[in-house]
Amino acid sequence: MAALSVSAQQTDMGAPITIGELLRKAADGVDRVDARWLLQNMLNVDAAFLIAHAELLLSVEQVAHFQRLLARRIAGEPVAYLTGKRGFYDLVFEVTPDVLIPRPETELLVEVALSKIPLGRRCNILDLGTGSGAIAVTIARHRPDACITAVDLSPSALAVARRNAEKYSVENVIFVEADWFTGFTDEKFDVIVANPPYIAEGDPHLEGDGLRFEPSIALVASNNGLNCIHTIIAQAPGYLKHSGWLIFEHGYDQADISRKLLDKAGFFHIFTRPDLSETDRVTGGQCESALV
Ligand SMILES: C[S@@+](CC[C@H](N)C(=O)[O-])C[C@H]1O[C@@H](n2cnc3c(N)ncnc32)[C@H](O)[C@@H]1O
Q1: Which residue's CA is minimally distant from atom 11 of ligand 1?
Q2: What is the CATH number of domain 100-291?
Q3: What is the pTM of this model?
Q4: Residue of the nearest CA to atom 6 in ligand 1?
Q5: Using the 8-state DSSP alphabet, how is residue 219 labeled?
Q6: How many C-beta atoms lie closer than 10 Å to residue 119's C-beta?
């Protein structure tokens, strides 16, 4: 494996190698699934091809390219950045280091949001902190009659989100560069969804495998990780229709405080849902601001 994980000069680059042999050597240094996925993407083939063509000889250039990918993976770079894509819900999204890699737990946020957006109705939806556009584009595909506004502070993230909307020919999403609600005056939404940054500054996880490659604007919030959640809860009532929903993702230990903040801001029907690992992950409530 050493030959595959270090620089090209140190490897036996003159000798072509078969797919099977390459994957066996790679598995000494990186996760077996990661190695397969990287090779699949590099060769633009599916998993079955790798199995069926284990004896296929790869070119010296292909081996060298794969070695470079492995070296980056070994250095901790997430597979999604190396392949430039990540599956989310039922779609595959382009990702770059400008955006957070969409997480499986965020699929719960989409699921809950979809349960509040009836099919066939022209609802107005706001996605705060859209990043790759994973939430906005997925909702747009599942609710073609809804009109989704996707906001982000990062122009480079919005560029990725726009490409993802184009990739799926989604025409019911508009993208707005803004600091949370500052892009709006009179608009009112039926549902506001958000996956804001919620990790505390200095949290040791930020130095761990993967996270240190992701943009800190997507991860970190002041006030012990709660600053963005505070802002969104405090301002959302001004932008929700009568009985509109605010639904957002938060950290594993932020459900209680999120519910308290919603209660204080006048929300009702407040709920929290756990993700697949039984961690409280999504909290929401209905706004009564327009009742008065
Ligand atoms: C946790 S990421 C979520 C990305 C995407 N929605 C997802 O779930 O994969 C948070 C996003 O919020 C954006 N963001 C951070 N601060 C913001 C602000 N003040 N206003 C708008 N967006 C902001 C970041 O650029 C980032 O794209």
Answers
A1: 129
A2: 3.40.50.150
A3: 0.92
A4: 130
A5: H
A6: 11
Tokens coding 152: 């982000």
- Could you write out the three-class secondary structure of 130-150? CCCCHHHHHHHHHCCCCEEEE
Classify residue 63 as exposed, middle or buried by CB count within 10 Å of its CB (0-12, 13-18, 19+): buried
For the residues 199-206, what does the mean pLDDT come to? 94
Domain ranges of the chain: 2-75, 100-291
Is the shortest distance between the CB of 157 and ligand 1 below 6 Å? yes
Q: Is 100 in the pocket of ligand 1 (CB under 6 A)?
A: yes
Which residue lies with its CA nearest to atom 10 of ligand 1? Answer: 218
Residue whose CB lies within 8 A of the most ligand 1 atoms, among 92, 101, 153, for a mutation test: 153
Candidate from 95, 154, 198 with most ligand 1 atoms within 8 A of CB, to mutate? 154
Dihedral angle sign, alpha carbons of residues 213, 246, 178, 119: positive
Cα–Cα distances in angstroms (integers) from residue 38 to residues 34, 99, 212, 219, in the given order: 6, 20, 20, 25
Question: Please, how many CA atoms are within 13 Å of residue 122, restricted to the half-sphere of its CB?
Answer: 0
If DSSP codes are grouped into helix, strand and coil, which group holds residue 226? coil
221 DSSP β-pair partners? 200
- Residue 289 has a pLDDT of 53
pLDDT at 173 over 90: yes
- E runs forming strands in the chain: 17-18, 57-58, 85-88, 91-94, 124-128, 147-152, 173-177, 189-194, 199-200, 220-221, 240-249, 267-274, 280-287
Mean pLDDT of 91-115: 98
How many residues are recorded in the chain?
292
Is the pLDDT assigned to residue 180 strictly greater than 70?
yes
Within 13 Å of residue 256, how many CA atoms lie on the same side as its CB? Answer: 1
